[in-house]
Amino acid sequence: MNRRPLELIAMHGWAGDSRAWRPWQQAAARRGWSWQSGERGYGQLPPQTPQWPEQGGPRAVIVHSLGLHLLPAPVLAEAQAVVLLASFGGFVPPGPGGRRWRQALRGMGRRLEAGDSAAMLADFLREAAAPASVELLPPGPSSGVMPAEGVERLRQDLLLLEQCSAVPPTFPSGARSLIVEAGADRIVAPESRAALSKALPDAEHWSLAAAGHSLLGSDLVEPVLNWLEAGH
What we know:
Blueprint: E1 7-11, H1 22-30, E2 34-37, E3 59-64, H2 67-70, H3 73-77, E4 81-85, H4 99-113, H5 117-129, H6 148-163, E5 176-182, H7 190-199, E6 204-208, H8 221-230
Parallel strand pairs: 1-2, 1-3, 3-4, 4-5, 5-6
Helix pairs in contact: 4-6
């Protein structure tokens, strides 16, 4: 029996852009699958809001980090499979343990407001790439001149990072879910990673002990697409 091709929508995280998904998009195309990349528009690329086609195959989303919270609510709500890469429900851990993360976000916001976006982003990306070299990151917003509206979106999404406290309410309860956790993540707190697994107890869980937040060198494209195909 012929199966309908998968419809895939991906969303990058804070300070990223859709260029990071190019290897994924190419691999999906080889399987005959449809692909859309959401784009927040922090840098040189214009904002793009994806939406499901009226007629299409099974629907799956792949998100990295804050991408779960940047997806349009109708897109997330109608997904039949969800892949969460180095993601979280709430970013700032509750209680006293969250103070460090809250202070860091506010400090980053002050640097943006002071016009220090290039240096601030360099510091953030170094931590996001670690323990791998920051030079291994794909091109992103900081690779060129960032427009004022892009910097403002970065600032707004820092506020979102501080405010999001749970998995979005439109998360599809019946969807197959895969959590890919970066064990050496310097961006998402261990408590926040654990809270995501607790919030999605039926999700499959892959833990990559040596991977940092950007999952560099993890070779996830084919394994994740195989996981999607297995449930297709």
